[in-house]
Amino acid sequence: MRRSRSPFLFFVFILIGGMLGGALGAILSQIPGLEWIKMGGVNGYRELFSFSFNPLIDINFIRFGISLAVKINLGSIVGIIIGALLYFR
Fold first, then answer.
1. Distance (Å, rounded) from C-alpha 73 to C-alpha 30?
2. Are 78 and 23 in contact (CB under 8 A)?
3. Is the torsion defined by CA of 17, 22, 23, 28 positive or negative?
4. Which of 16, 36, 50, 74 is deepest in the core (most CB within 10 A)?
5. Which domain holds residue 84?
6. CA dihedral over 81, 29, 38, 16, signed as positive or negative
7. Is residue 39 part of a domain?
């Protein structure tokens, strides 16, 4: 009998794979000869998406805003692929 697969679990695998791969890519890009992992960009990351509402609410004693940025490097792309493969395995 085949288990049903959860879309939430797939998202978790992709997210963890991207985070671990990104951290590993940042560490490996410091080694001489592996600088190509950086792929350019600021600190080895390329910003794919940026979203900001600053300030969304601004009153005298509180300021509230929302920001989201998606940045990747080669290691995070590899981590996302490995996370997807582990999910479907």
1. 13
2. no
3. positive
4. 74
5. 7-88
6. positive
7. yes
Report pLDDT digits (tens) over 28-86.
888 888 877 777 666 667 777 788 877 778 787 888 888 888 888 888 889 999 999 99
Say how many domains are in the chain: 1
Residue 66 · residue 56 · CB < 8 Å:
yes
Residue 36: per-residue pLDDT: 78
Query: Is residue 2 one of the residues assigned to a domain?
Result: no
Q: Which two tokens stand for residue 31?
A: 């080694």
Could you tell me the two tokens for 43?
Answer: 């600190």
Amino acid at 74: L
Structure-token match 């960009």, residue found: 41
